[in-house]
Write a structure and sequence with these properties.
single chain; 2 domains; four-stranded antiparallel β-sheet; 2 helices
């Protein structure tokens, strides 16, 4: 008698879990299809160096091996008039992420723009960033359309104390996009990153 009640309970729980799993997968799939139909970008955020490595190893975020740039640009709001450095003005030059990644370091208490407007990686219509903060900090990242400098949204606005990977997907590969990094608290923050 007890065994049959336990079996019925397990069967009911199993059916409920299966139904919830199917519903969740179908809901995610329909949301994903809706996003693609509307040509809206989507954002992926992974926090923590170990998590990022696990996601890359599992193939859930790209690694893009073989296209690493050795150049490192400094994004510093206090540097002006130097080639390769950007401050408070939107970029005018372009960088094709299909040819190589882009490495940078940042230092600010207000905001800085990236040095370039980026063409997305064509294979998956995305732009990813790996960012390593030098200290615990609040970082905000906004993204813009390169053709008319229109603000498209905020990618990230949170405290970080470890590496983060941020992906922006479902992008138009014929258009360019750029980023504005800011310190919402007005405190001095710094770190480094790669855009790929």
């Amino acid at each position: 008698m007890i065994n049959s009640k336990i079996r019925k309970f397990i069967a009911i729980i199993s059916i409920a879990i299966f139904a919830f799993g199917v519903f969740s997968i179908e809901s995610f799939a329909s949301v994903n299809e809706d996003v693609q139909k509307q040509n809206k970008p989507f954002i992926v955020i992974i926090k923590g160096k170990n998590n990022i490595e696990a996601y890359k190893k599992a193939g859930l975020i790209p690694t893009r091996n073989g296209i690493v740039s050795s150049k490192i640009d400094k994004l510093d709001e206090n540097i002006t008039g130097q080639t390769g450095s950007k401050g408070t003005n939107p970029p005018t030059s372009t960088w094709d992420l299909n040819n190589s990644s882009y490495n940078f370091s940042y230092s600010m208490s207000n905001y800085v723009y990236t040095n370039y407007k980026y063409y997305p990686y064509a294979a998956d219509c995305s732009i990813y960033q790996d960012i390593t903060p030098n200290t615990i900090q609040k970082l905000k990242i906004d993204y813009y359309l390169g053709t008319n400098n229109s603000h498209l949204g905020t990618l990230f606005n949170d405290y970080i104390d470890d590496d983060i990977a941020i992906g922006l997907g479902n992008l138009d590969i014929a258009k360019t996009y750029y980023f504005k990094y800011s310190s919402p608290n007005g405190t001095s923050i710094s770190g480094s990153g790669t855009i790929y």
